[in-house]
Every structure is written in structure tokens, then in C-alpha cells.
Input
Amino acid sequence: MTVGAARGEHPSPAVLPAHPALPDPLVMQDGTRVASAAAWRQARRPELLELFETYVYGRVPQGPAYDSQTPLAHRVLFEDRRAFDGIGTLREVELTIGPPDWPKIYLLIATPNDVPRAPCFVGMNFAGNHQLTDDPRVRLPDGWMPDRHPGVVGNRATDAGRGGQADDWPLAEIVQRGYAVATFYCGDIQPDRPDVREGMRAALEADGEADPAETATIMWWAWGIQQAVDYLRTDDAIDPDRIAVVGHSRLGKTALLAGALDERIALTVANQAGCGGSGPSRHDDPKAETVRIITEKFPHWFAGNFTKFGDDPSRLPVDQNCLVAMCAPRPVLFTAAADDLWANPSGQFEVLQAAAPVYELLGVDGLKADAMPAADAPLLGDGRLGYWIRSGKHSMTPADWNIYMDFADRWMK
Ligand code: GCU
Output
């Protein structure tokens, strides 16, 4: 089965002209300036989507089988209404997203008991829901996972991993602040390895020569988040109009893509997401990851075309500021860490700056700062583009979650 039909003709990466500066999200490919909200919505935003599909992430899965309006079948695996010392409910839900041979999503959902229709964060985790809590009822994923995570033996999850990454998703603290949170293992949709003979890619892709714009793993992950959003919007404990997407690092790249694709997502948080996510492809910072390095090491994350820009990313007709712009006017927060130069904190700030004109065109404030804030001085409330760099290293911590919730308090409460 072919996933996503090619739409329109796009030049091969080899013949695209070079533009050293970040592309202006308000100038069409043919040079026309976008001067109205209508032109943005009807012409430029769709053009950008197509360019990201062609040159960066591959096609958005589409066709009747992928219709995101189709109601999903779900089964509650367990529910504890007295979780987190009685203030919340914890449950795990199995989502059937297609025919029996398709993967299933196992969504762990924590909701506050005293907030009707709570705002909700959704995102994927790296190594299974069981890593986020000691609760023995939480299911162990049965698919492949990288050995570097706690308790993983022979690329399979074991009980020894329970609670091993609880700091990444501090469920109790999130519920205490009046938010719901829903998460699932990224490998439910597509295991994180170049060998794609598993997951959605295996279930759906045609054999034979790969289309250079075929749906890559980050796009499949973003699509998985959209499946979770479909379900969450039917959940009585959650406000369907206040769902925020969040992710760390490669899963932060995914969160940003999901936020850009899906206008039902009210707010986007990309934590230390760097190259191919919140960091620009065009940069000359020797300490930051480049398109060449990322596509050599993680070829499965991106469309084959993205690899072809390794020698000269200035030929890319888009850069990551255009992906942020696709979220406009919805709020976006980038969070960075001072020691995480690989993810290019200053470049991330420039990406926000170069997305801001689209927010202004749509009549809202984008970024209310001319220079990158100092470490530990959050820029969260004045415009819909927020930025925070904290001291420390590459990780997702309870302190970072407090910042996500401060930003969400401003824009979703
Ligand atoms: C590697 C990779 C990054 C990625 C990170 C992560 O460092 O180079 O692009 O963001 O892994 O996902 O932790």
C-alpha cells in the first residue's frame, strides 16, 4: 500500500537554490509576499506542509484507513480512581487504530479528580509507560526497545524498568497542578531503529524502492500522537479544546511536527529538540548537530530527501521556523538546557524569532524579546512564543514540567 500520494511536482534537492538566511515564512516559493491571514491559511500554510512532507519528514499518512475522524475502538485495561493519594485517577487504555495487524497504542492517562474537563498534556515516552510509575498494573510494552533504557534486557522491557524514568513524566505533580497527562511508548507506533520491519512502517509500506518522500519515523510518531488526540477528545475527564503536545529531544521534534500538523492541538512544547525539531537546519555552530550528522546516524527519522541536504542545508526551501509558523496563532514553547549545545539553544531562539512575523500577521503577539534570555530566566507570558533555557544538561525534569505548566497556565487556563 502506498502511504500518502505525491502531491505536486517538487524539484530534486540537487537543483534548489541556496539561501543562507532562514527562509521568510511569509514569502511563497514563487516570490509572492503573503500579506493577509487568508493568504497565509489558504496558500502559504498548505505550501509549507507540502514542502516539509517532500523534503523533511515524508508524507502525512492519508487515505480512508488513516482518516483521523474515524472513531477508535478502546478498552480500559485498568482504572484507579484513588491514585496519587486520592487526588487523581490513573488508567491505561488500549487504542485500536486499524486492522488487527496494525500496532495498538497503550495510553497511560492521569487526570485530576477535582477538575472537570481538565486541560491535558499528551506526548510519547522513550521506553514504556511502566517506566513512569511503580504501579504494577501498568503494562510492559512487548515490542523492541533500545537496550540503553532502565531494565531493558535483550531489547525487551522487563519489570526491572518500573519507575525507572518517573522523573521524565512527574504524573502526581502534573495532576496536583490541575492538568491531565496522557502518554504512550513511541515504539507502540514505530520502534526507534533504522530497521523498519516493524510498527506502522512494516504494516503499510510498499516493498521495493523507497520513495524519497516516504513517511519517515518522526512523521509516523506525530501521526500516532494524532490518534491519541482523537481518543482524548472523546474522554469526559479532558477538555477537547485544551490539549497540549509535549516531547523531549527526538520526541520533542515529533511534538513540534504534531503541533504544526494538527490544529486541534492547542499548545506545543518542544523540550531540547534540536536539529530536525526546534533547532535550525541552517547554522554554522560547530557544537550543534547538523543535517549531515543527524541523517547519517538516524536515517529512519526523516524522508530520504532530507539526507540530500547534508552538504548544504541552505538549499532547503524550508527551515524549522516555518514549522513553528504552521502552529500560529497557537502558543509554542521551546525549552533548552545550557549544557546541551548539541541541541543548539541559541539557534532555537532564532527559529522562534523567524517564526514570529506569522503570529503578528494573524494579529497576536509572537516573541516579546529581542535577545535570548539568560539561563533560568523564563520568557513565558507576553507573547505566544515562549523560550526557557535552564542550567544543566540534556534531560526532561520535574523543573522543566513546572515551566511547561506555567506557560500553559498563561495560555490554556
Ligand atoms: C541524539 C540526537 C538528537 C536527539 C537526541 C535525543 O543526541 O543526535 O537529535 O534529539 O539524540 O533524542 O535524545
